[in-house]
Amino acid sequence: MHEIFPGIFRWTRSVRPGVTGASLWIQTIHGPVVVDPFIPEGGIDQIQALGAPHAVILTTHRHERDAAAYEARFGVRRYVNGKPDSPISRRGVRFQAGERVLDTFDTVDLGGISAGETGLLLSREGGILILGDAFLNIQLTHSPLTWIFPVFLPYGPPQPYPVWMSRGPRTSRIQLAAIGELAFKHLLPSHGDPILADARERVLAAIESERRAHGFLSSSDGRPDIDARSAPFK
After folding, report:
1. Do residues 28 and 9 touch, judged by C-beta distance below 8 A?
2. Helix 199-214 crosses helix 169-179 at what angle (to 10 degrees)?
């Protein structure tokens, strides 16, 4: 568990061979909040030692993770994008993308990536963007799957979530392009290392590389929106 900014701690758990998923503990004006809740390897007492959270937030319906354990231990409420309606969204306090959550997080619609995908933007430290699956910053040299990652993640890191796995391929690319209009300096992806400097510039470069290769934002990309059935990153 590492403090990457004052009042922001991050820890990871393995979700696939060579791929980790991250959780965040963030101090807010209402008290601590945990984003995409995994229990740390040292146990949930580590969270108690930092400060019991008063809420958890999911960046995507896929990241329910250990939310039930946090609810049982701390009596927290989970906040989750209300679209689409699903058993996961019904179990939480529903918000709509574009709303401000807990007077702290500006929310960004990324539902073309996966069900309920939402970016969380903090207006501190020059802007901190928290993403679930929308961008992956997996370092290829650190993985036993180095030989295959370039096939699926050719434009990074950071890498836009693969278009063929997205819930709505064309919608996802329009939404990812809109990320470039946000004011942020740092990127905290769930999958891969944080980018604690020129994150916006690197995100824009990856989006442009993909656009040049496939022209996703031209008049038509020729691909129907599809519902991704697999969820390799959780």
Report:
1. no
2. 140
Amino acid identity at 43: G
Residue type at position 18: G
Q: Which residue's structure tokens are 């969380």?
A: 120
Computed on alpha carbons and rounded to an integer, the radius of gyration of the chain in Å comes to 17
Instruction: Record the tokens describing residue 55, joined without a space.
Output: 């809420």
Global pTM value: 0.88
User: For residues 154 and 186, what is the distance between their CA atoms, to the nearest angstrom?
Assistant: 22
pLDDT digits (tens, 9 = 90+) for 10-43: 999 988 777 889 999 999 999 999 999 999 999 9
Whether the link from the prior residue into 144 is cis, omega within 30° of 0, is: no
Give 79-133 pLDDT, tens digit per residue. Answer: 999 999 999 999 999 999 999 999 999 999 999 999 999 999 999 999 999 999 9
Q: How far apart are CA 189 and CA 20, in angstroms?
A: 10
Q: Give the Cα separation of 80 and 120 in Å (integer).
A: 12
The rounded distance, in Å, linking the Cα atoms of 37 and 50 is 14
C-alpha dihedral sign at 131, 136, 137, 143: positive
